[in-house]
Design goal:
heterodimer, A: alpha+beta, 21% strand, elongated, B: alpha/beta, Dimethylsulfoxide Reductase, domain 2, Barwin-like endoglucanases, 5-stranded parallel beta sheet, 20 helices, globular
């Protein structure tokens, strides 16, 4: 019996309980358990974002897939089919839903102006525009096309980048192409730490 | 990992040293208990602290932090002296019989070629003696005084039990037990695995810690076999992928090299990085370097990369010195950096010497933070009492904080420690206006393109040429990029099956050669979910995709003898029968070649064998040597008092003054992780914050009594770089060790402190740490630095 069949069986049980509620069964059966909460949830497969064991996850979200229904993840557990973790998670992984739904998530692009003591919400367009302006001014002023021997080196040292080791490879490759096309040399990852 | 998590169950002896898997990789550690229960395996733990892994071990030995090399070289000496060596393996698959140049020397802590002024070595003498064809000379009789085997024996002869114990503080009787258990795996029917993590890398000789273990594994014949290997337990979920993607200052994806100033043109560059075979008949797989590189340039620059413009070679930036984060933060501190992107890193908490990092960030003109969480780094300009004592009005940095998605809200592949590329799916939309990193960087790049088009500027060509031909250039989707990483045949437009199809003429494009095969014409191999393990050895070839070529155990040719017969019939990975190779895993060699022609399992080396002598590849020597941490609690090196610590360490100007002495700061401090937390992320998670709400400093009972400190007291811990207040946790897990005639106390500091999360506000341990790093990798010495500790008054 796999997981889905198990859920279906639970659902059958629930229906049977409903029939008994018509009065064919004694009143004590009214104490039947409430419907299993994962039954109507959507299941999505993922991997734990913490250490590098790479445990498989099942994430459960509500949402009818209707246009106005926003999915929200309310439960995360280990994937029993995963050959490494076989359904298990450590204390950190078992609390992953608190990371997804942390009250300290960032929600909007913000800027802190020079010398200011507060954040100001801005649009993505403003953020992209202002960041690109600052980068271009710095790059145009400090880009090194040739070294003292006259060799083409095309490097930009006055801006650097610390890169993520939690984003997927695809984001990492985009990050690499972004950085090197601009001439950034001083890029590094937390792998060094 | 050369092997993978499940394979640990095949081990006979599991050694955890330089890590604490039960605490930091608890689910992976499940395979250690599996080996103990099902395979009668013994667990050996060597650590300064009687940690959670030690609590389950058959054999535990304490050692002083920063002395692992002495411990392992002593073990190697013991193995050779007691003849617990897998001689068949050593003879067939290592460079033990190779002859080293006559001018190679080691005297009083220094190898030949040292230049004191630059703290670097001229490494010419660290090489094989070559014959007239350019091949390394060997002496299969092992009689030559300069063959690697004899040089190795001579080098490690100084590390007898008493000398090792005097340096490490490990009692001789504990040491003997560890040596005997590990030595028991020298036979063909036994294997030991070593599991290590940041406890080995966070040292000024981290790479040599790992080298020392590799020597042991080669002596025992434990590499390339089931249940063996060299197994790094990586930290972050995709730190393996980030490294594969070359997100380092001198790398390109797939472990290709970012060119430097000496690589003046494409031909010179390819010549410099395409090795020539050092023995006849070698696979020498890096000889394919030009195919990997040119295909990568086709992926970077698309149609703009042509033979006429050297496939866009000049558009790549070249480096003159290593700009790792320590160097770049130092430049920032000296006012030489204007802008900084911080993507998914809590720099102010994670970087060493917090006070210096903070001062450096304050000098930036602009900073762009991309993170799902409101990190301390994004508010480095905000006063937070004594935890972040700054005046916002004095800080002129413009800071942008851009909200990103996290794992649950994006699709893509992450790579685990065992090199498994696992695909994941999006479960929900992110909060507010958060975007994936790829979409944010694309947005900025498109804006830059607009600005360069309108205004012109310095070298706009690479910005225009970079291949951004995605369906929506403002948001490259994971699937498109994954296919780009796999590579395509540009003539047919078909996805490649493997890196063996790559060409150096510009007719193939491939973002990362080692990933080739992950998304073929048959679809997404990383999304596969067949968990069947038909051999029962933990090999699941239908689950996800393991780079390279879906290979699960690297160097697996070494599991057989020269004739293709498995050393151990119970541990067969591949074997030669009926004129063919068969196996439960992809062979890590050309499976079309008969056994004798493929009998060089280390195919990435131009001589095809494992190296006891590392040639010129490491900064501080071809053999490991014990050097003290930069801050030594004994203030000397018992082996060579004139060369105390690693002589090849990079000392940036002004940093020597930030190092403390053992007279002022007498106690060793080591940082570590707790199972309830993951760095600084989980301080933002309710459950984790409830289960471990605050940090502490752990110290032994004798030191506590001496200092009048009781469990739960507030204490002040200080180093030459700064000081912090925290609570004392007095335990028996730490014990003073007798080292070179004195008692050395170690204190432990969890790294999870922060002042911006849901846990109690606390200092970051990095107020105390030093930025001096490993001579090769520049990983800071977080695991062995000096502090003083005192009971805090008036709290």
């Amino acid at each position: 019996m796999d997981r889905r069949q198990f859920f279906k069986l639970c659902a059958c049980g629930a229906t049977t309980s409903a029939i008994s509620a018509l009065g064919l069964m004694p009143g004590t059966a009214m104490a039947a358990p409430r419907e299993y909460k994962l039954l109507k949830a959507k299941e999505t497969r993922n991997n734990c974002c913490y250490c590098s064991v790479g445990c498989g996850l099942l994430m459960y979200s509500y949402g009818s897939n209707g246009k106005n229904a926003e999915k929200a993840i309310f439960h995360i557990e280990g994937d029993a089919d995963h050959p490494v973790n076989r359904g298990a998670l450590c204390p950190k992984g078992a609390g992953l839903v608190d990371y997804v739904n942390s009250p300290n998530r960032n929600h909007f692009p913000e800027v802190r102006e020079a010398g200011s003591n507060e954040w100001k919400r801005i649009s993505w367009n403003e953020a992209f525009g202002r960041i690109a302006r600052l980068m271009k001014d710095d790059r145009d002023e400090n880009f090194v096309e040739k070294n003292s021997d006259g060799t083409t080196v095309n490097r930009w040292l006055t801006t650097g980048m610390m890169t993520s080791s939690a984003q997927p490879n695809e984001g990492g490759f985009i990050t690499h192409k972004f950085a090197r096309s601009l001439g950034l040399v001083a890029i590094d990852t937390i792998a060094r730490n | 990992m050369t092997n993978h998590w499940i394979d640990i169950k095949n081990s006979n002896v599991v050694v955890i040293m330089g890590g604490n898997a039960a605490e930091a990789h608890p689910v992976g550690f499940g395979w250690v208990t599996e080996a103990m229960e099902q395979n009668n395996a013994k667990l050996v733990v060597v650590d300064p602290r009687f940690n959670r892994s030690a609590a389950l071990a058959d054999c535990y030995a304490p050692l002083r932090s920063g002395t692992d090399i002495a411990f392992l070289l002593g073990l190697s000496r013991y193995l050779i002296e007691t003849e617990q060596v897998n001689y068949d393996y050593v003879k067939a698959y290592t460079n033990a019989s190779y002859i080293i140049r006559e001018d190679f020397e080691f005297n009083e802590g220094l190898f030949s070629g040292f230049d004191e002024k630059s703290r670097t070595y001229d490494k010419d003498s660290w090489y094989y003696e070559l014959d007239e064809d350019g091949y390394a000379k060997v002496d299969e009789t092992y009689a030559h005084p300069r063959c690697v085997w004899n040089l190795l024996k001579h080098h490690i002869d100084r590390y007898d039990f008493e000398t090792v114990s005097n340096i490490t503080g490990t009692p001789v009787e504990d040491y003997e037990k560890v040596c005997a258990l590990i030595g028991s795996t020298h036979t063909h029917d036994k294997a030991a695995t070593f599991m290590y993590a940041l406890g080995w890398t966070h040292h000024t000789k981290g790479a040599q810690n790992i080298r020392s273990m590799a020597l042991v594994q080669l002596l025992l014949g434990n590499i390339g076999v089931l249940g063996g290997g060299v197994n790094a337990l990586r930290g972050h979920s995709n730190v393996q992928g980030a490294t594969d993607m070359g997100l380092l200052c001198q790398n390109l994806p797939g472990y290709l090299k970012l060119p430097n100033d000496n690589d003046t043109d494409l031909a010179t560059y390819l010549d410099n990085y395409t090795p020539k075979a050092l023995r006849p008949g070698q696979t020498n797989y890096w000889s394919n370097y030009p195919k990997f590189f040119v295909s990568q340039m086709k992926s970077f620059w698309g149609e703009n990369a042509t033979a006429a413009n050297s496939f866009g070679y000049d558009w790549l930036p070249k480096w003159d010195i290593q700009y790792d984060f320590t160097k770049h933060i130092d430049m920032m501190y000296h006012g030489q950096v204007n802008g900084y992107f911080i993507q998914g890193v809590n720099a102010i908490n994670s970087m060493p010497n917090r006070n210096k990092t903070l001062a450096a960030l304050c000098k930036l003109k602009y900073m762009v933070v991309m993170d799902p969480l409101a990190t301390e780094t994004s508010v480095f300009w905000q006063k937070a009492g004594e935890f972040n004592d700054v005046q916002p009005s004095e800080i002129q940095t413009e800071v942008f904080r851009l909200p990103t998605t996290l794992f649950a809200e994006e699709e893509g592949c992450i790579v685990n420690s065992g090199r498994w590329m696992q695909w994941h799916w999006k479960g929900a939309n992110p909060p507010g206006e958060s975007k994936p990193d790829a979409e944010i960087l694309s947005g900025i790049l498109m804006k830059l393109r607009e600005l360069y088009k309108e205004e012109g500027g310095v070298l706009p060509e690479p910005i225009e040429a970079i291949n951004w031909g995605y369906h929506n250039p403002h948001f490259p989707h994971g699937e498109e990029v994954a296919k780009e990483l796999n590579g395509i045949d540009l003539k047919t437009g078909k996805q490649l099956d493997s890196f063996s199809q790559l060409k150096d003429d510009g007719s193939t494009a491939c973002g990362c050669w080692i990933y080739s095969g992950c998304w073929t014409e048959a679809g997404n191999m990383m999304a596969r979910r067949d968990n069947s393990d038909t051999s029962g050895k933990g090999i699941t070839p239908g689950w996800a995709f393991s780079w390279p070529a879906n290979r699960r155990v690297l160097y697996n040719r070494a599991s057989c003898d020269v004739n293709g017969k498995p050393w151990d019939p119970k541990r067969v990975i591949v074997e030669w029968t009926n004129g063919k190779w068969h196996g439960i895993d992809q062979g890590d060699f050309n499976m079309k070649l008969p056994p004798k022609e493929s009998a060089h399992p280390f195919i990435m080396q131009p001589e095809g064998v494992g190296r006891f002598f590392a040639l010129k590849h490491l900064a501080e020597g071809p053999f490991p040597e014990h050097y003290e941490p930069m801050e030594s609690p004994i203030g000397t090196n018992p082996l060579h008092p004139n060369v105390i610590s690693n002589p090849a360490v990079r000392m940036l100007p002004g940093v020597a003054e930030t190092l403390g002495s053992h007279t002022e700061f007498p106690y060793v401090c080591t940082t570590y992780s707790l199972t309830e937390h993951f760095n600084f992320w989980t301080i933002h998670c309710r459950l984790a914050a409830i289960s471990m709400p605050e940090t502490f400093v752990e110290l032994d009972e004798i030191l506590a009594a001496k200092k009048g400190i009781a469990n739960g007291d507030w204490v002040k811990v200080s180093s030459k770089r700064g000081s912090l207040m925290t609570k004392a946790l007095v335990t028996k897990r730490l014990q003073p060790l007798k080292v070179h005639g004195q008692m050395v106390h170690t204190v432990g500091l969890p790294r999870h402190g922060g002042h911006n999360g849901l846990t109690r506000r606390s200092y970051s341990c990095n107020v105390l740490t030093t930025e001096v790093g490993d001579a090769n990798t520049q990983v800071p010495e977080f695991k062995a630095f000096l502090v003083d500790i005192a009971k805090a008054e008036g709290v």
